[in-house]
Amino acid sequence: MTRLLRQLGVLTAFVLAGFYVFTMMAGPNGWPAMMEKREQLIEAERKNEEVRQQISREEATIRELREGGPARDRVIRDKTRKQKPEETTIYFTDPPSGSKH
């Protein structure tokens, strides 16, 4: 009789443990939440990669500007709105907000 009760107790423990695992995985903090967190992690990693690429591009631009040369001259001329004697620069302005076309 005690052997039967012991086996029944072990079986009951396994069933309760299985039910607990099932309810934890199926509940709001279980499998659906894990999948949502995984999607959020993938999105954050994608954004981080985009930011790394942007930083890399900006570092390359800064390096070009520090080294001088045509890139630096172009930026200076754009900021000061000056030009070389042989250049022609056309500046476009926005039309007044009251005009209709």
Question: Any overview of this molecule?
Answer:
- This protein has 101 residues and is an all-alpha fold.
- The protein has a domain at 29-82.
- The chain contains 3 helices and no strands.
- The chain has helices at 2-26, 31-67, 70-80.
- The mean pLDDT is 85.
Please name the defining characteristics of this protein:
101 residues, mainly alpha, 3 helices, 72% helix, rod-shaped
Q: How would you summarize the topology of this molecule?
A:
Blueprint: H1 2-26, H2 31-67, H3 70-80
Question: Summarize this, please?
Answer:
The protein is built from three helices and no strands. By secondary structure, the chain is mostly helical.
Distance between the termini: 98 Å
| SSE order | HHH
Outline:
rod-shaped
* Gyration radius over CA: 34 Å
User: Which structural class should the secondary elements be placed in?
Assistant: mainly alpha
Beta-strand content estimate: under 5%
Major sheet, described briefly? none
- Overall pLDDT, averaged? 85
Number of helices: 3
User: What is the number of strand segments?
Assistant: 0
Could you name the ranges where pLDDT drops below 50 across 5 or more consecutive residues? none
Residues in helix, %: over 70%
